[in-house]
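Much of what follows relies on a compact textual record of a protein's fold. Think of the row as the fold of the chain written in a discrete alphabet. An example makes this concrete, so a full record is given next.


***
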Amino acid sequence: TGVAFETRLGSYNMPNRTLASYTEARDRSKGTTVQVRGFWGDIVNSPYYAFSICTNSIDRPRLFKISGSQYRHTETDIAEFNLQDYIGQLESGE
């Protein structure tokens, strides 16, 4: 139904289409351009975003370094670094 959290008193007889949108795609049989409806948020926004938008101020210059007009590290690299740092803080009690 597209409802993340159902309540006991609610009746969910229609899908939640609030996050659906259209994008262009190619018809496999005809080869023409068609509009496809779906939820693309998980494709456009990776799950790593939440752990890579900020980092320790000491490590920030190194992780967000730009070389040749591109960032040297991907958001996956930064998220992995941050998660390892968070786990290290939990283990050490900092």
Observations:
- The mean pLDDT is 82.
- The two ends are 43 Å apart (CA to CA).
